[in-house]
Amino acid sequence: MLQLSLEQTTRRALENPLLRTRWNVAGSSTKRGHQIVISGSDKMKNRDDGQALCVSRAAFERADGSETRGHDKRLLISDYARVRDMTGSFWRSHKPTGSVHVHLVELSDEEILGALVGIGLAAYAFRNFVRERDEKDAQVQLSISKDKGPIERELIDTAQAIATGMNLARHIANLPAAVANPDALAKFFKKYFGARPGVSVDVWGVDRLQKEKMGLLLAVGQGSQWGSRLVHLRYRPGGKGSSRRRASETRPLAFVGKGVTFDTGGLDIKPASGMRLMKKDVSGAAIVAGLCDFVSRARLNTPCDFYLPLAENSVSDRAMRPGDVFLSRAGHYVEIDNTDAEGRLVMADAFDVALTQSKADAPEALVDVSTLTGAMRVAVGLDVAGFFSNDDELAAEAEQAAQKMGELAWRMPLVKKYEKFLSSQFADFKNSSDSGFGGAITAALFLQKFIRAKDPRAEREIPWLHFDVMAWNNSGDGAMAEGSNAQTLQILIGMLLRRA
Ligand SMILES: [Zn+2]
After folding, report:
1. C-alpha 252 – ligand 1 centre gap (Å)
2. Average per-residue pLDDT in the chain?
3. Residues spanned by the domain of 458
Protein backbone atom coordinates (compact mmCIF):
# COMPACT_ATOMS: atom_id res chain seq x y z
CA MET A 1 0.00 0.00 0.00
CA LEU A 2 1.12 3.51 -0.65
CA GLN A 3 2.64 5.02 2.44
CA LEU A 4 1.85 8.61 1.68
CA SER A 5 0.46 11.26 3.87
CA LEU A 6 -2.72 12.68 2.48
CA GLU A 7 -1.84 15.97 4.13
CA GLN A 8 1.52 16.21 2.42
CA THR A 9 0.26 15.39 -1.02
CA THR A 10 -2.61 17.82 -0.66
CA ARG A 11 -0.53 20.66 0.68
CA ARG A 12 1.74 20.39 -2.32
CA ALA A 13 -1.16 20.17 -4.73
CA LEU A 14 -2.71 23.32 -3.33
CA GLU A 15 0.42 25.39 -3.82
CA ASN A 16 -1.59 27.60 -6.07
CA PRO A 17 0.46 30.39 -7.64
CA LEU A 18 -2.41 32.81 -6.99
CA LEU A 19 -1.78 32.44 -3.27
CA ARG A 20 1.69 33.93 -3.58
CA THR A 21 1.17 36.33 -6.44
CA ARG A 22 2.32 39.94 -6.34
CA TRP A 23 -0.71 41.92 -7.36
CA ASN A 24 -1.07 45.24 -9.14
CA VAL A 25 2.58 45.30 -10.16
CA ALA A 26 2.91 47.61 -13.13
CA GLY A 27 3.89 45.68 -16.26
CA SER A 28 6.77 47.94 -17.06
CA SER A 29 8.46 47.45 -13.70
CA THR A 30 9.16 43.76 -14.32
CA LYS A 31 11.22 43.76 -17.48
CA ARG A 32 12.73 40.38 -16.82
CA GLY A 33 10.95 37.06 -17.18
CA HIS A 34 7.91 35.99 -19.14
CA GLN A 35 5.44 38.77 -20.06
CA ILE A 36 1.89 37.81 -20.99
CA VAL A 37 -0.89 40.16 -22.09
CA ILE A 38 -4.48 38.94 -21.78
CA SER A 39 -6.74 41.32 -23.61
CA GLY A 40 -10.44 41.68 -24.26
CA SER A 41 -9.78 43.97 -27.21
CA ASP A 42 -10.25 42.53 -30.66
CA LYS A 43 -7.57 44.88 -31.93
CA MET A 44 -4.97 42.71 -30.27
CA LYS A 45 -3.88 39.76 -32.35
CA ASN A 46 -3.05 36.43 -30.72
CA ARG A 47 0.54 35.35 -30.96
CA ASP A 48 1.51 31.72 -30.72
CA ASP A 49 4.63 32.32 -28.62
CA GLY A 50 2.73 32.42 -25.36
CA GLN A 51 3.02 36.21 -25.08
CA ALA A 52 -0.49 37.40 -25.81
CA LEU A 53 -4.04 36.12 -25.72
CA CYS A 54 -7.21 37.77 -26.99
CA VAL A 55 -10.22 36.69 -24.92
CA SER A 56 -12.95 38.72 -26.64
CA ARG A 57 -16.23 37.03 -27.55
CA ALA A 58 -15.30 37.34 -31.23
CA ALA A 59 -12.00 35.57 -30.62
CA PHE A 60 -13.84 32.81 -28.78
CA GLU A 61 -16.31 32.44 -31.66
CA ARG A 62 -13.41 32.13 -34.11
CA ALA A 63 -11.46 29.65 -32.02
CA ASP A 64 -14.26 27.53 -30.58
CA GLY A 65 -17.73 28.49 -31.77
CA SER A 66 -19.35 25.71 -29.74
CA GLU A 67 -21.85 27.86 -27.89
CA THR A 68 -25.37 26.41 -27.59
CA ARG A 69 -28.01 28.98 -28.45
CA GLY A 70 -31.73 28.94 -27.74
CA HIS A 71 -32.84 26.96 -24.66
CA ASP A 72 -33.89 30.22 -22.96
CA LYS A 73 -30.19 31.21 -22.99
CA ARG A 74 -29.49 28.69 -20.24
CA LEU A 75 -26.55 27.16 -22.07
CA LEU A 76 -24.84 30.36 -23.22
CA ILE A 77 -21.27 30.99 -22.17
CA SER A 78 -20.88 33.82 -19.67
CA ASP A 79 -18.05 36.34 -19.77
CA TYR A 80 -16.57 34.78 -16.65
CA ALA A 81 -16.57 31.29 -18.14
CA ARG A 82 -15.29 32.35 -21.57
CA VAL A 83 -12.28 34.16 -20.17
CA ARG A 84 -11.64 31.47 -17.53
CA ASP A 85 -11.55 28.73 -20.15
CA MET A 86 -9.57 30.67 -22.77
CA THR A 87 -6.99 31.85 -20.23
CA GLY A 88 -6.77 28.45 -18.57
CA SER A 89 -6.37 26.63 -21.83
CA PHE A 90 -3.63 29.09 -22.92
CA TRP A 91 -1.88 28.58 -19.57
CA ARG A 92 -1.99 24.81 -19.83
CA SER A 93 -0.63 24.76 -23.37
CA HIS A 94 2.23 27.20 -22.73
CA LYS A 95 3.06 26.18 -19.13
CA PRO A 96 4.85 29.41 -18.23
CA THR A 97 7.50 28.95 -15.53
CA GLY A 98 9.90 31.12 -13.59
CA SER A 99 9.14 34.79 -13.29
CA VAL A 100 5.85 35.49 -15.08
CA HIS A 101 4.07 38.80 -15.39
CA VAL A 102 0.45 38.91 -16.56
CA HIS A 103 -1.06 42.19 -17.72
CA LEU A 104 -4.87 42.35 -18.08
CA VAL A 105 -6.23 44.76 -20.69
CA GLU A 106 -9.80 45.90 -21.39
CA LEU A 107 -11.48 43.32 -19.18
CA SER A 108 -14.60 43.73 -17.04
CA ASP A 109 -14.51 42.63 -13.40
CA GLU A 110 -16.34 39.45 -14.31
CA GLU A 111 -13.76 38.73 -17.01
CA ILE A 112 -10.86 39.50 -14.65
CA LEU A 113 -12.31 37.01 -12.17
CA GLY A 114 -12.48 34.49 -15.01
CA ALA A 115 -8.85 35.10 -16.00
CA LEU A 116 -7.60 34.72 -12.42
CA VAL A 117 -9.61 31.56 -11.73
CA GLY A 118 -8.47 30.18 -15.12
CA ILE A 119 -4.83 30.60 -14.09
CA GLY A 120 -5.52 29.08 -10.65
CA LEU A 121 -7.23 26.02 -12.13
CA ALA A 122 -4.68 25.54 -14.91
CA ALA A 123 -1.82 25.65 -12.41
CA TYR A 124 -3.10 22.54 -10.65
CA ALA A 125 -2.05 19.22 -12.05
CA PHE A 126 -1.95 15.93 -10.22
CA ARG A 127 1.78 15.22 -10.07
CA ASN A 128 2.20 13.48 -6.71
CA PHE A 129 3.21 10.15 -8.11
CA VAL A 130 5.16 11.29 -11.13
CA ARG A 131 8.75 10.71 -10.11
CA GLU A 132 10.30 12.66 -12.90
CA ARG A 133 8.11 15.65 -12.47
CA ASP A 134 9.60 18.92 -13.40
CA GLU A 135 10.16 20.77 -10.13
CA LYS A 136 10.08 24.01 -12.07
CA ASP A 137 6.37 23.37 -12.71
CA ALA A 138 5.54 24.45 -9.21
CA GLN A 139 7.84 27.43 -9.18
CA VAL A 140 6.03 30.25 -10.87
CA GLN A 141 6.67 33.70 -9.46
CA LEU A 142 3.55 35.37 -10.67
CA SER A 143 2.83 39.07 -10.75
CA ILE A 144 -0.40 40.50 -12.16
CA SER A 145 -1.52 43.99 -13.13
CA LYS A 146 -4.26 45.58 -15.23
CA ASP A 147 -4.54 48.54 -17.58
CA LYS A 148 -6.67 50.93 -15.53
CA GLY A 149 -6.09 51.19 -11.79
CA PRO A 150 -5.47 48.35 -9.34
CA ILE A 151 -7.23 44.99 -9.32
CA GLU A 152 -9.79 45.09 -6.54
CA ARG A 153 -8.93 43.18 -3.40
CA GLU A 154 -12.36 41.51 -3.36
CA LEU A 155 -11.81 40.05 -6.85
CA ILE A 156 -8.42 38.71 -5.83
CA ASP A 157 -9.80 37.11 -2.66
CA THR A 158 -12.75 35.57 -4.49
CA ALA A 159 -10.52 34.18 -7.26
CA GLN A 160 -8.11 32.66 -4.74
CA ALA A 161 -10.95 31.11 -2.75
CA ILE A 162 -12.63 29.66 -5.88
CA ALA A 163 -9.38 28.23 -7.29
CA THR A 164 -8.28 26.73 -3.98
CA GLY A 165 -11.69 25.19 -3.21
CA MET A 166 -11.86 23.76 -6.73
CA ASN A 167 -8.33 22.37 -6.58
CA LEU A 168 -8.93 20.79 -3.18
CA ALA A 169 -12.03 19.03 -4.54
CA ARG A 170 -10.19 17.93 -7.68
CA HIS A 171 -7.23 16.67 -5.72
CA ILE A 172 -9.26 14.51 -3.35
CA ALA A 173 -11.03 12.82 -6.25
CA ASN A 174 -7.74 12.39 -8.13
CA LEU A 175 -6.06 10.59 -5.22
CA PRO A 176 -5.92 6.79 -5.39
CA ALA A 177 -8.56 5.12 -3.24
CA ALA A 178 -5.84 3.39 -1.19
CA VAL A 179 -4.72 6.83 -0.01
CA ALA A 180 -8.10 8.55 0.19
CA ASN A 181 -9.96 5.84 2.12
CA PRO A 182 -12.82 6.71 4.52
CA ASP A 183 -10.59 6.70 7.61
CA ALA A 184 -7.75 8.73 6.09
CA LEU A 185 -10.16 11.25 4.57
CA ALA A 186 -12.04 11.76 7.83
CA LYS A 187 -8.74 12.38 9.65
CA PHE A 188 -7.57 14.67 6.89
CA PHE A 189 -10.70 16.85 6.99
CA LYS A 190 -10.44 17.09 10.75
CA LYS A 191 -6.93 18.47 10.40
CA TYR A 192 -7.46 20.56 7.27
CA PHE A 193 -10.52 22.40 8.59
CA GLY A 194 -9.72 22.06 12.30
CA ALA A 195 -8.17 25.49 12.74
CA ARG A 196 -10.26 27.29 10.11
CA PRO A 197 -12.16 30.26 11.57
CA GLY A 198 -15.91 29.64 11.63
CA VAL A 199 -15.60 25.91 10.85
CA SER A 200 -16.06 23.04 13.27
CA VAL A 201 -15.53 19.41 12.34
CA ASP A 202 -17.33 16.38 13.71
CA VAL A 203 -16.46 12.83 12.64
CA TRP A 204 -18.74 9.89 13.37
CA GLY A 205 -17.05 6.48 13.32
CA VAL A 206 -18.73 3.08 13.15
CA ASP A 207 -19.77 3.06 16.84
CA ARG A 208 -21.53 6.39 16.57
CA LEU A 209 -23.14 5.44 13.25
CA GLN A 210 -24.53 2.33 14.98
CA LYS A 211 -25.87 4.42 17.84
CA GLU A 212 -27.50 6.72 15.32
CA LYS A 213 -29.07 3.69 13.58
CA MET A 214 -27.59 4.65 10.21
CA GLY A 215 -28.13 1.20 8.76
CA LEU A 216 -27.77 2.25 5.12
CA LEU A 217 -24.44 4.07 5.42
CA LEU A 218 -23.09 1.21 7.56
CA ALA A 219 -24.31 -1.41 5.06
CA VAL A 220 -22.33 0.11 2.20
CA GLY A 221 -19.08 0.16 4.22
CA GLN A 222 -19.51 -3.20 5.97
CA GLY A 223 -17.51 -5.13 3.39
CA SER A 224 -14.49 -2.87 3.66
CA GLN A 225 -11.66 -2.84 6.21
CA TRP A 226 -12.35 0.84 6.90
CA GLY A 227 -16.02 0.76 7.78
CA SER A 228 -18.07 3.91 7.21
CA ARG A 229 -17.68 7.48 8.45
CA LEU A 230 -19.78 10.60 8.48
CA VAL A 231 -17.92 13.92 8.43
CA HIS A 232 -19.93 17.00 9.37
CA LEU A 233 -18.30 20.37 8.59
CA ARG A 234 -20.24 23.16 10.22
CA TYR A 235 -19.68 26.73 9.04
CA ARG A 236 -21.09 29.63 11.00
CA PRO A 237 -20.11 33.16 9.98
CA GLY A 238 -19.60 35.96 12.42
CA GLY A 239 -17.09 36.51 15.14
CA LYS A 240 -14.00 38.37 14.10
CA GLY A 241 -14.05 37.36 10.45
CA SER A 242 -17.42 38.68 9.37
CA SER A 243 -18.26 42.32 9.13
CA ARG A 244 -21.89 41.75 8.26
CA ARG A 245 -24.80 41.24 10.58
CA ARG A 246 -27.93 39.12 10.74
CA ALA A 247 -26.01 35.89 10.23
CA SER A 248 -27.59 34.32 13.29
CA GLU A 249 -31.09 34.95 11.93
CA THR A 250 -30.45 33.06 8.69
CA ARG A 251 -31.13 29.36 8.71
CA PRO A 252 -28.29 27.26 7.31
CA LEU A 253 -28.11 25.56 3.96
CA ALA A 254 -27.25 21.87 4.11
CA PHE A 255 -24.97 20.26 1.52
CA VAL A 256 -24.47 16.52 1.22
CA GLY A 257 -21.87 14.91 -1.04
CA LYS A 258 -21.57 11.24 -1.98
CA GLY A 259 -18.28 9.94 -0.64
CA VAL A 260 -17.90 6.39 -1.91
CA THR A 261 -14.12 6.28 -1.86
CA PHE A 262 -14.07 3.35 -4.24
CA ASP A 263 -16.99 1.59 -5.89
CA THR A 264 -16.42 -1.97 -7.05
CA GLY A 265 -20.17 -2.31 -7.36
CA GLY A 266 -20.06 -4.73 -4.41
CA LEU A 267 -21.23 -8.30 -5.00
CA ASP A 268 -23.06 -6.99 -8.08
CA ILE A 269 -19.55 -6.29 -9.29
CA LYS A 270 -18.84 -3.85 -12.09
CA PRO A 271 -17.05 -4.92 -15.28
CA ALA A 272 -13.41 -3.77 -15.54
CA SER A 273 -14.23 -0.87 -17.86
CA GLY A 274 -16.92 0.40 -15.49
CA MET A 275 -14.65 0.12 -12.43
CA ARG A 276 -11.57 1.80 -13.86
CA LEU A 277 -12.45 5.34 -12.75
CA MET A 278 -14.33 4.49 -9.57
CA LYS A 279 -11.92 6.33 -7.28
CA LYS A 280 -13.89 9.33 -8.54
CA ASP A 281 -17.02 8.07 -6.75
CA VAL A 282 -15.86 10.23 -3.83
CA SER A 283 -16.38 13.36 -5.98
CA GLY A 284 -19.60 14.53 -4.31
CA ALA A 285 -17.92 14.61 -0.89
CA ALA A 286 -14.81 16.21 -2.42
CA ILE A 287 -16.96 18.93 -4.00
CA VAL A 288 -18.84 19.60 -0.78
CA ALA A 289 -15.51 19.83 1.10
CA GLY A 290 -14.24 22.19 -1.61
CA LEU A 291 -17.35 24.31 -1.07
CA CYS A 292 -16.62 24.47 2.66
CA ASP A 293 -13.08 25.53 1.80
CA PHE A 294 -14.44 28.31 -0.45
CA VAL A 295 -17.14 29.51 1.95
CA SER A 296 -14.76 29.73 4.89
CA ARG A 297 -11.93 31.38 2.91
CA ALA A 298 -14.33 33.90 1.38
CA ARG A 299 -15.99 34.33 4.80
CA LEU A 300 -19.47 34.31 3.34
CA ASN A 301 -22.31 35.41 5.52
CA THR A 302 -24.46 32.30 4.91
CA PRO A 303 -24.36 29.58 7.57
CA CYS A 304 -23.79 26.18 5.96
CA ASP A 305 -23.56 22.56 7.00
CA PHE A 306 -21.61 20.10 4.91
CA TYR A 307 -22.16 16.36 5.31
CA LEU A 308 -19.78 13.81 3.83
CA PRO A 309 -20.94 10.20 4.15
CA LEU A 310 -17.82 8.12 3.46
CA ALA A 311 -17.65 4.40 2.67
CA GLU A 312 -15.86 2.02 0.35
CA ASN A 313 -18.16 -0.34 -1.57
CA SER A 314 -16.03 -3.50 -1.50
CA VAL A 315 -16.36 -7.14 -2.43
CA SER A 316 -15.89 -9.41 0.58
CA ASP A 317 -17.61 -12.10 2.63
CA ARG A 318 -18.95 -9.33 4.86
CA ALA A 319 -20.32 -7.21 2.02
CA MET A 320 -24.06 -6.51 1.79
CA ARG A 321 -25.93 -8.89 -0.49
CA PRO A 322 -28.81 -8.50 -2.91
CA GLY A 323 -31.94 -9.33 -0.92
CA ASP A 324 -30.54 -8.04 2.39
CA VAL A 325 -32.76 -5.56 4.21
CA PHE A 326 -31.45 -2.62 6.23
CA LEU A 327 -33.15 -0.09 8.46
CA SER A 328 -32.46 3.54 7.56
CA ARG A 329 -31.97 6.27 10.14
CA ALA A 330 -35.28 7.75 8.98
CA GLY A 331 -37.01 4.49 9.89
CA HIS A 332 -37.61 2.89 6.50
CA TYR A 333 -36.68 -0.69 5.73
CA VAL A 334 -34.77 -0.83 2.44
CA GLU A 335 -34.23 -4.02 0.48
CA ILE A 336 -31.01 -4.24 -1.51
CA ASP A 337 -31.99 -4.90 -5.10
CA ASN A 338 -28.52 -4.15 -6.46
CA THR A 339 -25.38 -3.57 -4.39
CA ASP A 340 -24.07 -1.15 -7.03
CA ALA A 341 -26.89 1.29 -6.23
CA GLU A 342 -25.01 2.19 -3.05
CA GLY A 343 -24.63 5.95 -3.46
CA ARG A 344 -28.29 6.64 -2.69
CA LEU A 345 -27.95 4.54 0.49
CA VAL A 346 -25.10 6.60 1.96
CA MET A 347 -26.86 9.81 0.91
CA ALA A 348 -30.22 8.84 2.41
CA ASP A 349 -28.84 8.40 5.92
CA ALA A 350 -26.82 11.62 5.66
CA PHE A 351 -29.95 13.49 4.47
CA ASP A 352 -31.67 12.35 7.64
CA VAL A 353 -28.89 13.73 9.85
CA ALA A 354 -29.09 17.06 8.00
CA LEU A 355 -32.88 17.23 8.28
CA THR A 356 -33.09 16.35 11.95
CA GLN A 357 -30.89 19.19 13.19
CA SER A 358 -32.76 21.14 15.81
CA LYS A 359 -34.27 24.62 15.77
CA ALA A 360 -31.77 27.22 14.54
CA ASP A 361 -29.69 24.52 12.88
CA ALA A 362 -32.62 23.12 10.89
CA PRO A 363 -31.72 23.75 7.25
CA GLU A 364 -33.60 26.08 4.94
CA ALA A 365 -32.79 23.89 1.93
CA LEU A 366 -30.83 20.76 1.14
CA VAL A 367 -28.48 20.44 -1.82
CA ASP A 368 -26.70 17.24 -2.75
CA VAL A 369 -24.07 16.26 -5.29
CA SER A 370 -23.55 12.65 -6.28
CA THR A 371 -21.84 10.68 -9.00
CA LEU A 372 -25.01 8.65 -8.91
CA THR A 373 -26.08 7.05 -12.16
CA GLY A 374 -24.78 5.99 -15.53
CA ALA A 375 -28.30 6.67 -16.77
CA MET A 376 -27.78 10.41 -16.33
CA ARG A 377 -24.62 10.23 -18.45
CA VAL A 378 -26.58 8.42 -21.16
CA ALA A 379 -29.20 11.19 -21.03
CA VAL A 380 -27.08 14.36 -21.05
CA GLY A 381 -23.48 13.27 -21.63
CA LEU A 382 -20.43 13.97 -19.50
CA ASP A 383 -20.33 17.76 -19.66
CA VAL A 384 -23.83 18.48 -18.42
CA ALA A 385 -24.80 18.15 -14.77
CA GLY A 386 -28.34 16.81 -14.66
CA PHE A 387 -30.28 17.99 -11.67
CA PHE A 388 -33.62 17.47 -9.97
CA SER A 389 -35.51 19.73 -7.64
CA ASN A 390 -38.83 19.77 -5.80
CA ASP A 391 -38.73 23.58 -5.69
CA ASP A 392 -38.97 25.79 -8.78
CA GLU A 393 -37.34 28.78 -7.11
CA LEU A 394 -34.32 26.79 -5.99
CA ALA A 395 -34.09 25.19 -9.43
CA ALA A 396 -34.13 28.62 -11.09
CA GLU A 397 -31.42 29.78 -8.71
CA ALA A 398 -29.28 26.80 -9.73
CA GLU A 399 -29.92 27.45 -13.43
CA GLN A 400 -28.89 31.10 -13.14
CA ALA A 401 -25.75 30.24 -11.20
CA ALA A 402 -24.88 27.50 -13.69
CA GLN A 403 -25.16 29.92 -16.59
CA LYS A 404 -23.16 32.66 -14.91
CA MET A 405 -20.43 30.33 -13.65
CA GLY A 406 -20.12 28.49 -16.96
CA GLU A 407 -21.09 25.01 -15.92
CA LEU A 408 -23.67 23.32 -18.09
CA ALA A 409 -26.66 22.06 -16.13
CA TRP A 410 -30.10 20.80 -17.06
CA ARG A 411 -33.16 20.14 -14.94
CA MET A 412 -34.72 16.68 -15.14
CA PRO A 413 -38.21 15.64 -14.06
CA LEU A 414 -39.18 13.86 -10.84
CA VAL A 415 -41.80 11.62 -12.44
CA LYS A 416 -43.82 10.39 -9.51
CA LYS A 417 -45.39 7.60 -11.52
CA TYR A 418 -42.02 5.83 -11.64
CA GLU A 419 -41.95 5.38 -7.86
CA LYS A 420 -43.72 2.08 -8.41
CA PHE A 421 -40.48 0.66 -9.80
CA LEU A 422 -38.97 0.89 -6.30
CA SER A 423 -41.66 -1.15 -4.59
CA SER A 424 -40.54 -4.24 -2.69
CA GLN A 425 -42.37 -7.28 -1.42
CA PHE A 426 -40.01 -7.66 1.53
CA ALA A 427 -39.40 -4.12 2.77
CA ASP A 428 -40.81 -0.60 2.53
CA PHE A 429 -39.05 -0.22 -0.79
CA LYS A 430 -35.89 -1.30 -2.56
CA ASN A 431 -32.77 0.57 -3.62
CA SER A 432 -32.98 0.23 -7.37
CA SER A 433 -35.59 0.05 -10.05
CA ASP A 434 -36.75 -3.05 -11.85
CA SER A 435 -37.36 -1.01 -14.99
CA GLY A 436 -34.40 -0.77 -17.32
CA PHE A 437 -35.27 2.86 -18.08
CA GLY A 438 -35.17 6.25 -16.38
CA GLY A 439 -32.52 5.16 -13.88
CA ALA A 440 -31.47 8.69 -12.95
CA ILE A 441 -35.10 9.54 -12.18
CA THR A 442 -35.74 6.50 -10.02
CA ALA A 443 -32.47 7.20 -8.15
CA ALA A 444 -33.70 10.74 -7.47
CA LEU A 445 -37.10 9.41 -6.40
CA PHE A 446 -35.37 7.10 -3.95
CA LEU A 447 -33.55 10.08 -2.43
CA GLN A 448 -36.75 12.10 -2.34
CA LYS A 449 -38.32 9.54 -0.03
CA PHE A 450 -35.83 10.73 2.58
CA ILE A 451 -36.62 14.38 1.95
CA ARG A 452 -40.28 13.86 2.54
CA ALA A 453 -39.92 11.38 5.39
CA LYS A 454 -39.17 13.99 7.98
CA ASP A 455 -42.51 15.40 8.79
CA PRO A 456 -45.44 13.61 7.19
CA ARG A 457 -47.78 16.38 8.39
CA ALA A 458 -45.73 19.15 6.81
CA GLU A 459 -47.47 20.79 3.90
CA ARG A 460 -44.39 20.86 1.76
CA GLU A 461 -41.05 19.16 1.61
CA ILE A 462 -37.91 21.07 2.37
CA PRO A 463 -36.60 22.71 -0.85
CA TRP A 464 -34.17 20.21 -2.31
CA LEU A 465 -31.72 20.22 -5.20
CA HIS A 466 -30.03 17.02 -6.35
CA PHE A 467 -27.15 16.99 -8.84
CA ASP A 468 -26.23 13.76 -10.60
CA VAL A 469 -22.78 14.30 -12.13
CA MET A 470 -19.78 12.78 -13.93
CA ALA A 471 -17.20 15.10 -12.31
CA TRP A 472 -14.38 13.86 -14.51
CA ASN A 473 -12.54 15.11 -17.59
CA ASN A 474 -11.41 12.22 -19.77
CA SER A 475 -9.03 14.69 -21.38
CA GLY A 476 -7.98 18.26 -20.68
CA ASP A 477 -10.74 20.80 -21.22
CA GLY A 478 -10.59 24.58 -20.86
CA ALA A 479 -8.70 25.46 -17.69
CA MET A 480 -8.61 21.92 -16.35
CA ALA A 481 -6.34 18.97 -17.05
CA GLU A 482 -7.50 15.39 -17.39
CA GLY A 483 -8.96 14.08 -14.15
CA SER A 484 -11.40 15.42 -11.62
CA ASN A 485 -13.16 18.65 -12.64
CA ALA A 486 -15.22 19.24 -9.48
CA GLN A 487 -18.34 19.54 -11.66
CA THR A 488 -21.07 21.72 -10.06
CA LEU A 489 -18.77 23.23 -7.42
CA GLN A 490 -18.76 26.53 -9.29
CA ILE A 491 -22.57 26.39 -9.54
CA LEU A 492 -22.81 26.04 -5.77
CA ILE A 493 -20.27 28.84 -5.34
CA GLY A 494 -22.32 31.03 -7.70
CA MET A 495 -25.50 30.33 -5.72
CA LEU A 496 -23.82 31.27 -2.45
CA LEU A 497 -22.22 34.40 -3.91
CA ARG A 498 -25.66 35.58 -5.03
CA ARG A 499 -27.06 35.07 -1.55
CA ALA A 500 -24.10 36.77 0.14
ZN1 LIG B 1 -22.23 1.93 -7.41
Report:
1. 30
2. 91
3. 161-499
